[in-house]
Amino acid sequence: MSRISIPTADQTLDAAKPLLAAVHKQLGVTPNLMKLVSHSPSSLDGYLALSGATGKGKLSVQLRERIALAVAEFNGCDYCLSVHDYLGRNLAKISDAELNAARDGQSEDARTQAALHFALQVLQTRGHVSDAALAAVRLAGFDEASVLEIVVNVSLNVLTNYVNNVAQTDIDFPKVSARLAA
Questions:
Q1: Which of 23, 25, 28, 65 has its CA 20 to 30 A from that of 139?
Q2: Directed axis angle between helix 78-90 and helix 144-167, to 10°?
Q3: Whole-angstrom distance, CA of residue 124 vs CA of residue 88
Q4: Residue 44 to residue 28: CA distance in whole angstroms
Q5: Among 135, 171, 137, which residue's Cα sits nearest to residue 153?
Q6: Model pTM?
Q7: Cα–Cα distance measured from residue 82 to residue 141, given in angstroms and rounded to the nearest whole number
Q8: According to the 3-state scheme, what is the secondary structure of the chain?
Q9: Residue 182 has pLDDT above 60, yes or no
Q10: CA angle 117, 119, 125 (to 5 degrees)
Q11: Inter-residue contact 82 to 175 (CB < 8 Å)
Q12: Contact (CB, 8 A) for 134 and 140
């Protein structure tokens, strides 16, 4: 059971209702994470704005989902692993082998591998990546905008990992568990 309550429809603050309605319209469901964050309509609004903005960037949905899986595995977030495994399969159409590999920061594709390696470097060093790590991701074909988008995607996923790890949000997707201890 979630350690922070997940508001029911009648418990939802008025300021959060249009935000949750937009999520439901886009996804066809309202995930527990969104309901949980609706305790703070300003936090939900900020999260949705940043999430929406990342979807308009240069990184493909396939790469964004792989980054989300690598970050969730690193942080031991079962909720986010479950969500992004589901989205990776059903939205991004990523193979089982690649979904599994992404959790470990791996890919058969060299460019994707470089992005995932860099994303994990951002996590492991808390943003203090080496010149060599930055050079390697650039060498793989990522320009400044793409490098920044990788960092923002890592940060966005750390945000949701931390919220879900603190709240122990009830998982409302097919459950996937972290392999690594956080």
A1: 65
A2: 130
A3: 24
A4: 18
A5: 137
A6: 0.96
A7: 30
A8: CCCCCCCCHHHCCCCCHHHHHHHHHHHCCCCHHHHHHCCCHHHHHHHHHHHHHHCCCCCCHHHHHHHHHHHHHHHCCHHHHHHHHHHHHHCCCCCHHHHHHHHCCCCCCHHHHHHHHHHHHHHHCCCCCCHHHHHHHHHCCCCHHHHHHHHHHHHHHHHHHHHHHHHCCCCCCCCCCCCCCC
A9: no
A10: 95
A11: yes
A12: no
CA distance 20 to 115: 32
Three-state SS string over 141-161 comes to CCCHHHHHHHHHHHHHHHHHH
Alpha-carbon gap, residue 34 to 18, rounded angstroms:
12
Q: What is the pLDDT of residue 181?
A: 52
Structure tokens at 6: 């997940």
- What number of other Cβ atoms are within 10 A of residue 126's Cβ? 8
Helix (H, G, I), strand (E, B) or coil at 4: coil
